[in-house]
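Example 222.
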Amino acid sequence: MSGALFDPRPDGPVTVAPGAVHVPGWLDAERQRDLVRRCRDWATGPAGMRRHRMPRGGEMSVRIVSLGWHWAPYRYTRTLPDGTPVKPFPPLLGELAGAAVAAAYGAPPPPDAPPYDVALVNFYDADARMGLHQDREERVDAPVVSLSLGDSCVFRFGNPETRGRPYTDVELRGGDLFVFGGPSRMAYHGVPRTLPGTADPECGLSSGRLNITIRASGLPAR
Ligand SMILES: O=C(O)CCC(=O)C(=O)O
Ligand SMILES: [Fe+2]
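Predicted structure in complex with 2-oxoglutaric acid:
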C-alpha cells in the first residue's frame, strides 16, 4: 500500500517559491550518517563550532562552524578573529552541491558558474532557532544548497522584499535538500523552531539538528 495515507509528504521536488525547491529525502541513510560523522569532525577545535555574538550584543542560539571562509555576522574573513586558519572547504561538499542543484532544478550548474567554496554547518539544540534573514554575504548569485540532518525543523521561506508574508513554512527532515536561487536567492528565511525527538535513530545524531549550507562566495580563490 502506498505510504501516502500516513505520510502526506510528496516524493519528488516541490517548488516552494520561484527558484526555491524542496527535495524531501534526498540523502539516503548512509550518506546522512557519513555527513553527521564529518560534522562531528568539523565541529572540533581549533576553528570549531561556536556561538557568534550579534552586532547588538546578543548571542546566536545556533552553533556554527564555517569551512572555506570564516563567516561571522555579517562577513567572510580568511581566518578566525584570533588568526586561526579556517578549516578547508571539503571537495565532497562541492560535489554534493552540484548534484543538489541538478536534483532541484533538473540541470547541473552551468560550466561557468562560480565554484562552491564555503559551507556553514549549523547545530541546533532543542531551544535553538534562527531569525529571518537573507544570505547576502556572497558576491555572486549561485543558488544556496541546504542539507538537513537529525531532528526535523520548521523552515520559514519568504520573499526577497520583506520579513513578512508571503512566506511558506516547510517541515525539513533529516535527509532533506532545499535549494534557493534565481528570484529566491535573496529571500528571507529562518528556522522558528526544531521538532526535538524526530530524528531517525539511524542517522547517527541522537539529539539536535544539523544543517549544512553550501555557498559560492565569489571571493578570490585562496
Ligand atoms: O538551518 C537552516 O535550515 C537554515 C540555515 C541558514 O539559513 C543559514 O545558515 O544561513
Ligand atoms: Fe540563511
